[in-house]
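Lecture 7 notes: from sequence to structure.
We start with the chain below.
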Amino acid sequence: MKLSIQQHDRSSAVLLGMACGDALGAGYDFAGPMPPSAAVGMRGGGGAHWARGEWTDYTALAVPVARAAADGLDLRDESTLDLIVAEWLDWSTTAPFAGLQLAAALSGRSTSESAAEGVRRAAREQHDRIGRSAGNGCLLRTAPVALAYLHDADALADAARGLSELTHCETDAGDACVLWGLAIRHAVLEGELDLRVGLGTLSPGRRELWSARIGHAERREPRDFTRNGWVVQALQGAWSAIVHTDATDAGQYRRGVEAAVRGGGNTDAVAGVAGALLAARWGLAAVPSEWRRLVQGWPGLRGADLVRLSVLAAHGHDTNDAGERESFRLHVVR
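Predicted structure tokens for the same chain:
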């Protein structure tokens, strides 16, 4: 699949846009909601004492997925999931924070099992103990999946759900990842923001439920989604921030991400979700230059590295672009 210049620009911005939203929200995590006029800046801090401009565990967990996509691997293959989980395990040894469901899944794995199999089993056991596993931790790592399957919406939906189900067992989690991933794909390819574009991939009952949830988000403000640690309200809060900001120009990226932060609660997650989708619509130039200069995080990457990873992920499925992928790969920090 050959991308136009505009599609290439939009696809290259997705991970950067997500990371900047994540890093912006990190300093305000559970500090809101704030008035609409409140200034929002890249200040760091938060519960894990993030450095200024540092992305959190949300973006960190997306990096191994993006690397696998950049290498042209099929994200639906169990062997690929094993590689991704191995990198998550490496990340977890030094991570300042991991969500409860993810932490339990990674720490409960047995060495007698494959990486993906063990994490999947441990996640199910944690779900059975506490009765839920639909936290928002599964959502942001779906962004590279959208880039990897720009050419195939059905494969994107399958890969997004499979990646979610590694650590989160509830249908809500998989549905949210599918809907958000397909919305990113649509924004890249068509230059339009539409969270409903993936509804047809869900079963009729789930389709009606999610249609009502999206409509609810459009009628309410981000601050109304106070349980945004739940994947459903994280997505609703992000979509509310997007639809309630002026969409006449590329400044919608900044306006939408800041609105997500002002909504309060799990601000890094909600702003990261909004940031990826808005960047997929508006492209690289929409991301403020000061945010691009500041953003950085595990495993020693900066904003430019995320742009390169986005480019590679969007071309990784196309074996005819192997030479192009290799030339970019030489400049990506590993």
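Points to note: The CA atoms of residues 166 and 218 lie 30 Å apart. Confidence is low (pLDDT under 50) at residues 327-334.
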